[in-house]
Structures are given as C-alpha cells and as structure tokens.
Design goal:
binds calcium ion, binds ligand C2E, EAL domain-containing protein, nine-stranded mixed beta sheet, 279 residues, alpha/beta, 9 strands, single chain
Length: 279
C-alpha cells in the first residue's frame, strides 16, 4: 500500500508539474496576446423582453489565439487575475469598447449603453477613473453611454479605495450593475453600500424559473427589494420562451440571453443594430 501510495503521489506530482508548465506557457502567450492585440470584444444585447427591442450591449472579451482559435474568458481571465495581466487587459477592454462605440455612432448605429465587466483588481488602481475619462474624451463617449458590471465579491477587500474609485466613475456618468446577483456573499449589504443602478439576476435563478415555484419566489423577492431601492433588474441567461414568459409575468422584462442574441462579433452585430431605434 505504501508503494502504491508513493506511485500515486509521483503521478500526482507529474500532473502538477505539467499543469504548472502549461500555466507558464499560457501566461507567456497571454502577455504576447496583449502586445499583439489578439484580444477582442464580442457583444450581447440587453433586451426589453416584452417587445424584443434592444436596449444596450454587454461587452464580453475573447482571445483570438493564433493556434487554438477563439477562446472565451473562462480560459484566461483567472490566470490574468493571478498574474496581474488583468490590469493591462482591463485597459484594453475600456479602450476597445469606447472606440467601438465611436465607430458605431459614426456609422449612425447607436447601440444604446455599452456595459463592460471590470475585475476587482482594477478597483485598486487609483488611476482607473482618469484613464476611463481619457478614453471617453478621446472617443467622444458621453455620460450615460457606458456602464460597468461588477460581481458582488469584487469590492470585498479594501472597500474604501474601491468606493472612492466607484464614486469617481459615477461622476463620469458610468452607471453600476451588480453582476451575478444572488450567488455571492453579502448581497444585501452590498446593495446598501453600492447603490447600483441595476442588478443582474444570475442564471442560476433563471434556468428553472418556468418550472420551479421556489425560483419564482426568489426572483420575486429580488424584484421587490430592488423596486423598494429604485434599482433596475435584469435577468441573465434566458434561453427559452418559457423562461422569458415566466420572468415577464413576474415583472422582470429586462432580459439577456441566447434566446434574444448570442454574444457576437462586431461585424455580425452591426447589421442587427440597424434595426435598433434610439429612445
Ligand atoms: P458574465 O459577466 O456573467 O457574463 C455572462 C456570461 O454568460 C457570458 O459568458 C455569456 O456569453 C454567457 N451567456 C449569455 N447568455 C447566455 C445564455 O442564455 N445561456 C448561457 N448558458 N450563457 C449565456 P462569457 O462570455 O464566457 O464570459 C464569462 C465571464 O467572463 C463573464 O461572466 C465575466 O465575468 C467574465 N468576463 C467577460 N468579459 C470580461 C472582461 O472584459 N473583463 C473581465 N474582467 N471579465 C470578463
Ligand atoms: Ca457581466
Ligand atoms: Ca453575470
Ligand atoms: Ca458570471
């Protein structure tokens, strides 16, 4: 048994080493990707589910990897956060979203508000608001045209700095959405602290909302609480008509999901934006 144990341990060790090598390789590639501009944004519509009208877009990062094709953030965001590369990645996201907004506007296709996802680590950078302001100025992005999405756990550490940064971003006209609402810790304390414009109900509550009374009760409770605090609510990950209808029946008509629009490249999306009419 001892022998076997040792053998297992050494297999495990090899696995660990292989893993570590893979991660170092990925880190090297991600650094290069940032230099070579291999990252790009796809966009997914936020929709009024009662009418199907598009209200805005969420920017979702992708990596056009030279060998492995188009990679979703699940392959590299965590590594970017662990290695600090998330900061450079984050700047590129802000820059790309502002530049794209300007291009769309120049083409007469206003997409509505664009929401970008920010990482916790970006909220320790005192320079964040200035750099956002600079990108907005250079690209002619007006207050209200940009929103930020944060997951609930984002501000857990060093809350004072994060809140200061958030206040300065608000002063620039950026509205705040709390992402993945209901899945993290301290949801309610965070609503009080952050006073977001919007909360996004996580897909975990949407998946079975048409078949489960408990999910409906939870969504209803979130809607009631949000209404009392004048916070908008949007449901994420809506994939079926039944989910859409159940949510609309509860009063949650702002929705996002594959049912309406998959995250898509700019080229594909631009044609669909033509149908979008400014409010
Ligand atoms: P998220 O912000 O919660 O984004 C929603 C995710 O759900 C996206 O995955 C989107 O493609 C996916 N999704 C949208 N509709 C549906 C649906 O109907 N069904 C299902 N099953 N999934 C749907 P994606 O693009 O892979 O992004 C994953 C996560 O990566 C995001 O979750 C966000 O936390 C992070 N992320 C994406 N872009 C950025 C970025 O620019 N910066 C940072 N820091 N994080 C990002
Ligand atoms: Ca998001
Ligand atoms: Ca989310
Ligand atoms: Ca998420």
């Amino acid at each position: 048994a001892k022998q076997l144990g040792r053998a297992r341990y050494s297999f495990f060790q090899q696995d660990m080493d292989a893993n570590a090598v893979q991660r170092m390789e990925l880190e090297r590639e991600l650094k290069l990707a940032l230099e070579r501009d291999e990252l790009l944004l796809h966009y997914q519509a936020l929709v009024d589910a009662r009418t199907g009208e598009w209200r805005g877009l969420e920017a979702l990062i992708r990596w056009q990897h030279p060998q492995r094709g188009l990679l979703p953030p699940g392959h590299f965001i965590e590594l970017a956060e662990e290695t600090g590369l998330i900061l450079e990645l984050g700047w590129q996201v802000i820059e790309k979203a502002c530049a794209q907004l300007a291009r769309w506007k120049a083409a007469g296709r206003h997409p509505g508000q664009i929401a970008i996802n920010l990482s916790a680590l970006q909220f320790r950078e005192q320079g964040l608001p200035d750099r956002v302001a600079d990108a907005m100025r250079r690209h002619g992005v007006r207050p209200g045209e940009l929103a930020i999405e944060l997951t609930e756990s984002t501000l857990l550490r060093d809350t004072d700095t994060a809140l200061q940064i958030l206040t300065r971003l608000r002063d620039l006209g950026l509205s705040l959405s709390v992402d993945d609402f209901g899945t993290g810790y301290s949801s309610l304390a965070y609503l009080k602290l952050l006073r977001p414009a919007r909360l996004k109900i996580d897909r975990a509550f949407v998946r079975e909302v048409d078949t489960r009374a408990d999910d409906r009760a939870l969504v209803q409770a979130m809607l009631g609480m949000a209404a009392a605090l004048s916070i908008d609510v949007i449901a994420e990950g809506v994939e079926t008509d039944a989910q859409r209808d159940a949510l609309v029946a509860l009063g949650c008509w702002q929705q996002q999901g594959y049912l309406f629009c998959r995250p898509q490249a700019v080229d594909v999306l631009t044609d669909r934006l033509a149908a979008w009419t400014a409010p």
